[in-house]
Amino acid sequence: MDEERRLAVLAPEMSRTTVDLLRRVVGVEPAERIPAEALATADRVLAQHGADGLRLLTMGLCGWAAVLIEQDAKMSGRTYEAVLDDIDLTCIESHAEN
Question: Mind listing the pLDDT tens digit for each residue in 40-53?
Fold first, then answer.
């Protein structure tokens, strides 16, 4: 219960932090700036809020990603797995270039 209270106090700020991060990275060019923004945010959250802050940031980003993957699958007529396979392939291809 103590953990739940601790996280509940921090949750609103981490929700705002998550949305602020997304505002900074959605549509950013070049796309290579996205990891730098994400790392800077994670470092800032860790320094200010410790592991609890990072956990909440991760939970928020994972929640948004899941919802958007579900929407993409529904709109494209693909399964969740097909959308995730495309994401996985993009990751593999991007790492092959490095």
Answer: 999 999 999 999 99
The reported pTM is: 0.84
The dihedrals phi and psi of 28, each to the nearest 5 degrees, come to -70, 140
Q: In this structure, what is the dihedral angle of CA atoms 5, 7, 8, 9, given to the nearest 10 degrees?
A: 90
CA proximity to 41, closest of 13, 65, 66, 67: 13
Rounded distance, CA 88 to CA 82, Å?
10
Tokens of 58: 């991760």
Q: What is the pLDDT of residues 43-94, one digit of tens each?
A: 999 999 999 999 999 999 999 999 999 999 999 999 999 999 999 998 898 7
Task: State the Cα–Cα distance between residues 57 and 92, nearest whole angstrom.
Answer: 25
